[in-house]
Amino acid sequence: QVQLVESGGDWVQPGGSLKLSCAASPFIVSNFALNWYRQPPGKEREFVASINIAGNSRVYADSVKGRFTISRDVTKNTLFLQMNNLKPEDTGVYYCMRPHGEYWGQGTQVVVSA
Prior knowledge:
Blueprint: E1 3-7, E2 11-12, E3 18-25, E4 34-39, E5 46-51, E6 58-60, E7 68-73, E8 78-83, E9 92-98, E10 103-104, E11 108-112
Parallel strand pairs: 2-11
Antiparallel strand pairs: 1-3, 3-8, 4-5, 4-9, 5-6, 7-8, 9-10, 9-11
């Protein structure tokens, strides 16, 4: 059974940084494209970032370009999202997602507030 388990969400002040993790099993993260999504309070879930199978192509939402970086570590079989210069509008529940089969994690909460 495919499992995606996010962690790393926290409260952080504007301008701060967080690194989210998504542990995957039983598949290997380098065998599938993977995405990060988020759902701000009271809003629809939205795309944040993706990484392709080869790991050489990353796509970002305009709102996070230059601030967020998606990556993966095959030795840990984990997907990451490094988030820098966080803004209050980055607040939300962050989900990792495998498009092939449409598998979602349970989400991890990020709150950016002074």
